[in-house]
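Our preliminary data section would be incomplete without showing what the modeling component actually yields. Below, a chain of 187 amino acids is followed by its predicted structure, encoded as tokens that our downstream tools consume directly.
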Amino acid sequence: MKRSRYASAATAVVLMTGGPVAVATTAAADPARTVTAAPAAPRADVTAESAAAAALKHYPGVIESLDKDGSVWHVDVISKDGKGHVELEVSASGSVTEQDRDTDENAAENKPLVSAKVTAQQAMKAALTAHPGQVTTVEWDDDGTASWHVEVKGKDGKTWDVQVDPTTGKVTRSGSDSDSDDGDDNN
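Predicted structure:
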């Protein structure tokens, strides 16, 4: 929740140096003068889209997965040639920290992801079009038929699991955490 706090600059200085007695004296000396300090900066909560952009700026390539853990995003990026892999953390302020880097990946194993027509960012956009809210996870799933798996915390309060086709960008399946059947609703 965003909270703005306003405080008299003189009062703040007096509190740091003279304590409560000085505050009473300062207020009595010039009650008409009110100086407001700038509001505290709101906490920056980085969205999935912003975390993806920050990660790719740090390490250009293709996002393999992106997952939020508290206020930190964990992002795995594969290099454009498929031979490199890096694990990154993107903080709530948007700063990127490299956790691990590997330069001898099997490029053939990463080829379906690297050559996919639809990126993680495009899959997120498709999932948000189907279910407005905030993306909490996106990951490449190549077990069987390749697809993007996107999890969205919907504005409706539900958590939506969305599958996006990596060739067309269309949502092929989605279901919420409150579905009573097998968890999947065909769109």
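The two ends are 34 Å apart (CA to CA). Strands lie at 62-69, 72-78, 85-90, 96-102, 133-141, 147-154, 159-164, 171-176. Preliminary results of this kind motivate Aim 1 of the renewal.
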